[in-house]
Amino acid sequence: MTLEIKHTFDEKNFRHYLNGFNMVLHCHHYMSLTTKLAIDFDDIGGTRILSESAEDSVRPLLEDYIRNHKISGDERLRIGAEFYSLMGMGKMEISGNAGAGNVKLQKSHVDSGWLKKWGNHDNPVNYFTRGYIAAVFGASFDKPARSYRVTENEAIVAGANTSSFTVEMVQV
Q1: Residue 153 CB neighbour total at 10 angstroms
Q2: What average pLDDT does the chain have?
Q3: Domain range 28-169, its CATH number among 1.10.220.110, 3.30.1380.20, 3.30.30.10, 3.30.450.20
Q4: What is the pLDDT of residues 42-69, one digit of tens each?
Q5: Is residue 21 scored above 90 in pLDDT?
Q6: How distant is the alpha carbon of residue 80 from its chain centre?
Q7: In terms of C-beta density within 10 A (0-12 exposed, 13-18 middle, 19 or more buried), how is residue 159 classed?
Q8: Residue ranges per domain, the chain?
Q9: Please, which residues have CB within 8 angstroms of residue 123's CB and are 6 or more apart in sequence?
Q10: Which pLDDT tens digit goes with each residue over 65-76?
Q11: How many Cβ atoms from other residues are within 10 Å of residue 134's Cβ?
């Protein structure tokens, strides 16, 4: 499936829009520094805040697309993977149902940025993608925010060839 995207640019305020949603174009420096900041402030919930912020900001875009294009079934998960690539975040393979799922990243913008700035890391760092995946599952299966726990099991930044995540529905 190919996404139907309307890209517009506000010349006055220098803002990009995808299908009417304001989008910030990013670079690996921004994502790496944001992730490092979240890790540095994890004692006050930094990584949780980063994941939840990603979930909350991405979900309306996905829900709007699913609703307006009458997307159903497994196509909803594929829409999430396609938007991930469109946003320049990497290459995602996603599967699952309302109760659980699996995600694999062949490429990861967050991991490659971290590797360029600081090299390998002992632990996974892709908190943005955890939130993104939670948004995809929530939008795909009409579940409220925080309905999914996403765990990064293997990470490119930690030396793996791909990053892998498991998704579990939790009681909200």
Answers
A1: 12
A2: 91
A3: 3.30.1380.20
A4: 999 999 999 999 999 999 999 999 999 9
A5: no
A6: 8
A7: exposed
A8: 28-169
A9: 155, 158
A10: 999 999 988 899
A11: 26
| Measured CA distances, 130 to 12, 35, 83, 102 (Å) | 34, 12, 15, 12
Q: Tell me the pTM.
A: 0.90
**Amino acid letter, 122:** D
Predicted confidence at residue 24, as pLDDT, reads: 67
> What angle is formed at CA 146 by the lines to CA 84 and CA 106, rounded to 5 degrees?
25
| Phi, psi for residue 162 in degrees, rounded to 5 | -135, 165
pLDDT, mean of residues 15-21 = 75
Tokens 């993977």 appear where?
Answer: 81
